[in-house]
Amino acid sequence: MKTALVVRGGWDGHQPVEATERFIPHLERNGYVVRVEEATDVYADADYMATVDLVMQANTMNTIDPEHLAGLIAAVQNGTGMGGWHGGIADSYRNSADYLHMIGGQFAHHAAVEPERRTGEQSDNYLDYTIQISPDRRDHPIVAGLDDFSLTTEQYWVLSDSYNDVLASTTVAARSFDAWNRPVVSPSVWTREWGKGRIFVCTAGHRVEVLDHPSVRTIIERGLLWASR
């Protein structure tokens, strides 16, 4: 049997409970014993973390105790895989440069609709956009057989680096009312090796409706298994 640890919490707008519950059965069908935690204290339990094959994290805009973070980083470096989506992994602990360094990308922005259309709701940041599979990575097991696909949801602009293996990206348009003056290509799906561990990130997944998109769900299900020890 393999072991998966689900750590969830943070901003309720990302539906951490409902979102993770969509993927726990997938892990169980693939032979994982799943433990769910609502806080990061478990990361500091070195004996337990040494037995974890996969961390699935959905914990947005939270903070993390240095001891908890040290335990997570040590586990990944020793072979524990880590995966997640959207702000649950790419906007988790803004107080920690070491976490951002390990994950390989930090949410910076999601563009909004035209100023006159904004109502103050989450939907202000829902845009029509395309996720494009990287042409030279179409044979990667996470995206194999998938075509480019369109979504209407938050389009993440991510600060990242060239150590990532980018499997898919999206182009953020530059419009007359935006502060930037040319289109920006941002990674949408990437993997990263950290010590002996593997990391998987999908930036789509703002709410469960996005997670239910067939391509998004396929990418996340495959990515979690790919990242696992």
Uncertain ranges: none
Mean pLDDT: 98
Oligomerization state: single chain
**Helical run tally:** 8
- Name the shape in a single word: globular
Main beta sheet strand tally, sense and closure: 9 strands, mixed
CATH C-level class is: Alpha Beta
Protein structure class:
alpha/beta
Distance between the termini: 12 Å
Number of strands: 11
Spatial order of the strands in the main sheet? 2-1-3-4-11-10-9-6-7
Report the portion of residues in β strands: 25-35%
Write the H/E string, N to C: EHHEHEHEHHEEEEEEEHH
CATH fold call: Rossmann fold
Q: Which bin fits the share of residues in helices?
A: 10-25%
CATH architecture descriptor: 3-Layer(aba) Sandwich
CATH superfamily membership, which one? Class I glutamine amidotransferase (GATase) domain
Q: How many discrete domains? A: 1
Rg from Cα:
17 Å
Quick structural gist:
The chain is α/β, with parallel strands linked by helices. The protein is 25% helix and 33% strand.
Q: Can you lay out the helices and strands and say which pair or pack?
A:
Elements (H helix, E strand, L loop, with lengths): L1 E9 L5 H6 L2 H6 L2 E6 L8 H4 L4 E7 L5 H12 L3 E5 L1 H4 L6 H7 L1 E6 L16 E7 L15 E5 L2 E5 L4 E8 L11 E11 L2 E6 L5 H4 L2 H14 L2
Parallel strand pairs: 1-2, 1-3, 3-4, 4-11
Antiparallel strand pairs: 5-8, 6-7, 6-9, 9-10, 10-11
How would you sum up this structure, described in words?
The protein has 229 residues and is an alpha/beta fold. The chain has a single domain (2-227), classed as Rossmann fold, CATH 3.40.50.880. Helix content is 25%, strand content 33%. It has helices at residues 16-21, 24-29, 46-49, 66-77, 87-90, 97-103, 208-211, 214-227, and strands spanning 2-10, 32-37, 54-60, 81-85, 105-110, 127-133, 149-153, 156-160, 165-172, 184-194, 197-202. The strands form 2 sheets. It has a 9-stranded mixed β-sheet. The protein has a two-stranded antiparallel sheet with strand order 5-8. Strand 10 (184-194) and strand 11 form a beta hairpin. The chain is globular. The model has no long low-confidence stretch (mean pLDDT 98).
